[in-house]
């Protein structure tokens, strides 16, 4: 039995394919269109999923959609009517997409895919809940979902037992922890639904003492936090209910200045505001988790929703709550709901026994040696071939030790927003200049942005103050932990200003080549850790194809591309000219 899941029309469109209970393919549409956070109908992601199994849409038993459009439209109409005439501008601008696309999802699916079967819809936060619980390793677990907004829900909690999911309580729009975070993200001059993680990273540079950070006290005026973690926003500070912007004049006045322009220098004030926001987020998050534990009496917690990507807060879950185990969907945002909806249909609606655990994120496209060689030769790209697997590992580790920056393109593309060792940029964490080099010459992004360390799971406790045993979400780069003090100066380029690192662990069973490369680097350099950052530049999605990878290398300071068994040196191809855009993509 095949079931296809679709998420689209808001942000991070995606598709996922389930075969007899197992997720066999999943990808975000942005990777194919090269439009970051692409919202469009995921025709390319769907095509990939079907082609990966050699099937057409008529082989699908069901197609599932990640929300209920009519219920969401009810909320949109309600908020516009409530704030009319202030909402007129946004109402008029939003209606075409509703009339042409969002309310015609079934018709669109059947037309695009030539599909004649059933299309099933489940509520947005139920799709989030299914995406974290039904593919987790737990038979029983508490569930917490937190994001901007679904149809009406912004936060929900419940519990899962075998095939069943019971969401017990919810918080409804316009009160939203996710939208509070987005509003401050916009105030700080960053892009909403794109750069919230930048604010999380910036918070490390601010005053993290709630007693002395004046912006913490000011922001507490906009949110009433209850002991159970429920909250209520003072909506007089926000305009997102009816306007096409998020920070209100009243919010700007509270924080002591206007919205920062993107080109404007980040000051200590901005950093302290980011820190205050993160403090408030963690306060609410921790109280919610403790209450959920009390209500469900579960020792396991599963988490999804865009706020599940807040790795700083995630790293404190097991320390600050009574939960013993945690699992977080690697694509915790809206993209992950396509996995949620297929899992819910198969396991909950159809009552099939749970047999699948999502223990890795390698669900995207791969390219054969023949395909890659054809691409290189058709485009007259100079390359060398590794004689064998061992030479590839040894040569690459040596190049990294010599402070070269490596574009690493191997196997199936990762699912979710993190590069996890298939489409990664790798570098030497012991090089004190690596962070500035990568930010300025490779990634073309803000200087303050940190880089993640990747370490083999069996070495993690030597270098990081992790929970024991190391939680599975570290495999997906979803948790921040302190770097042990004795290593701060030895791995400066992955040690954030506050002494932490957004850790990725890797187990050999997940990715043997990546694991062995890290171990080999450890043999040569005495520290088995690499810098791992996503293979892309600012404003673009992670690379998907050999063309994307080569193009990214040639436009940046990446020194070498290790693509399957081939080694491409940027300096050897400086005079290379594409015959045409089309031939380059072939």
Topology:
Blueprint: E1 2-7, E2 14-19, E3 22-28, H1 30-33, H2 43-52, E4 60-65, H3 69-82, H4 88-100, H5 105-113, E5 118-121, H6 124-133, E6 140-146, E7 153-161, E8 164-172, H7 177-187, H8 196-202, H9 214-219, E9 223-225, E10 231-233, H10 249-255, H11 268-296, E11 300-304, H12 311-314, H13 317-320, E12 325-328, H14 337-349, H15 369-378, E13 384-385, H16 389-401, E14 406-409, E15 423-427, H17 434-442, E16 452-456, H18 460-463, E17 479-482, E18 500-506, H19 512-525, E19 529-534, H20 546-554, E20 560-563, E21 566-569, H21 581-585
Parallel strand pairs: 1-4, 4-5, 6-11, 11-12, 14-20, 16-18
Antiparallel strand pairs: 1-2, 2-3, 6-7, 7-8, 9-10, 13-21, 14-15, 15-19, 16-19, 17-18, 20-21
Helix pairs in contact: 6-14, 7-11, 16-19
Can you offer a commentary on this structure?
- The protein has 586 residues and is of the alpha/beta class.
- The protein folds into 3 domains: 2-135 and 331-349, Nucleotidyltransferase, domain 5 (2-Layer Sandwich); 177-328, ATPase, nucleotide binding domain (Nucleotidyltransferase, domain 5); 369-585, Carbamoyltransferase, C-terminal domain (DHBP synthase).
- Helix content is 35%, strand content 19%.
- It is built from 21 helices and 21 strands.
- A 9-stranded mixed beta sheet has the order 13-21-20-14-15-19-16-18-17, with helices on both faces. Strands 3-2-1-4-5 form a 5-stranded mixed beta sheet.
- Helix 6 crosses helix 14, helix 7 runs antiparallel to helix 11 (268-296) and helix 16 (389-401) crosses helix 19.
- The protein is globular, with a radius of gyration of 23 Å.
- Mean pLDDT is 94; it is low at 578-586.
């Amino acid at each position: 039995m095949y079931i296809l899941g679709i998420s689209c029309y808001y942000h991070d469109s995606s598709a996922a394919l389930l075969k007899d209970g197992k997720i066999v393919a999943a990808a975000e549409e942005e990777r194919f269109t090269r439009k970051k956070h692409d919202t469009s109908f995921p025709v390319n992601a769907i095509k990939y999923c079907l082609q990966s199994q050699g099937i057409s849409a008529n082989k699908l038993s069901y197609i599932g959609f990640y929300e209920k459009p009519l219920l969401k439209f009810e909320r949109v109409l309600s908020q516009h009517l409530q704030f009319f005439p202030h909402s007129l501008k946004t109402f008029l601008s939003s209606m075409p997409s509703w009339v042409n696309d969002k309310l015609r999802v079934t018709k669109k699916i059947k037309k695009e895919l030539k599909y004649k079967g059933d299309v099933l819809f489940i509520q947005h936060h139920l799709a989030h809940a299914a995406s974290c619980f039904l593919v987790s390793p737990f038979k029983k677990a508490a569930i917490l979902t937190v994001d901007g907004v679904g149809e009406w829900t912004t936060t929900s909690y419940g519990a899962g037992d075998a095939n069943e999911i019971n969401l017990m309580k919810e918080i409804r729009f316009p009160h939203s922890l996710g939208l509070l975070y987005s509003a401050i993200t916009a105030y700080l001059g960053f892009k909403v639904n794109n750069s919230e993680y930048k604010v999380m990273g910036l918070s490390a540079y601010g005053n993290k003492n709630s007693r002395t950070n004046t912006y913490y006290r000011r922001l507490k005026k906009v949110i009433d936090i209850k002991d159970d973690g429920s909250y209520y926003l003072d909506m007089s500070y926000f305009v997102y209910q009816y306007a096409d912007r998020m920070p209100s004049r009243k919010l700007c006045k509270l924080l002591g200045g206007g919205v920062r322009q993107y080109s404007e220098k980040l000051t200590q004030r901005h950093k302290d505001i980011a820190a205050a926001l993160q403090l408030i987020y963690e306060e609410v998050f921790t109280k919610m988790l403790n209450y959920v534990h009390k209500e469900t009496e579960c020792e396991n917690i599963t988490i999804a929703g865009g706020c599940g990507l807040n790795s700083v807060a995630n790293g404190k879950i097991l320390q600050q709550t009574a939960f013993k185990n945690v699992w977080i969907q690697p694509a915790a945002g809206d993209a992950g709901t396509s996995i949620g909806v297929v899992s819910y249909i198969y396991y909950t609606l159809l009552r099939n026994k749970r047999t699948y655990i999502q223990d890795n994120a390698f669900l995207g496209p791969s390219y054969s040696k023949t395909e890659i060689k054809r691409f290189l030769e058709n485009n007259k790209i100079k390359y060398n071939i590794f004689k064998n697997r061992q030479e590839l590992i040894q040569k690459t580790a040596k190049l990294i030790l010599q402070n070269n920056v490596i574009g690493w393109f191997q196997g199936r593309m990762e699912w979710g927003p993190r590069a996890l060792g298939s489409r990664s940029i790798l570098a030497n964490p012991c090089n004190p200049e690596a962070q500035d080099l990568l930010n300025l010459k490779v990634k073309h992004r803000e200087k303050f942005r940190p880089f993640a360390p990747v370490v083999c799971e069996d070495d993690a406790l030597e270098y990081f103050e992790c929970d024991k045993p190391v939680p599975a979400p570290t495999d997906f780069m979803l948790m921040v932990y302190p770097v042990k003090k004795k290593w701060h100066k030895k791995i400066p380029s992955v040690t954030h200003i506050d002494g932490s690192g957004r850790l990725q662990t890797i187990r050999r069973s997940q990715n043997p080549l990546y694991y062995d490369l890290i171990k080999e680097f450890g043999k040569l350099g005495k520290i088995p850790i690499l810098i791992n950052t996503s293979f892309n530049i600012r404003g673009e999605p992670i690379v998907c194809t050999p063309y994307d990878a080569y193009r990214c290398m040639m436009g940046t300071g990446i020194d070498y591309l290790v693509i399957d068994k081939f080694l491409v040196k940027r300096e050897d191809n400086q005079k290379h000219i594409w015959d045409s855009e089309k031939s380059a993509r072939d």
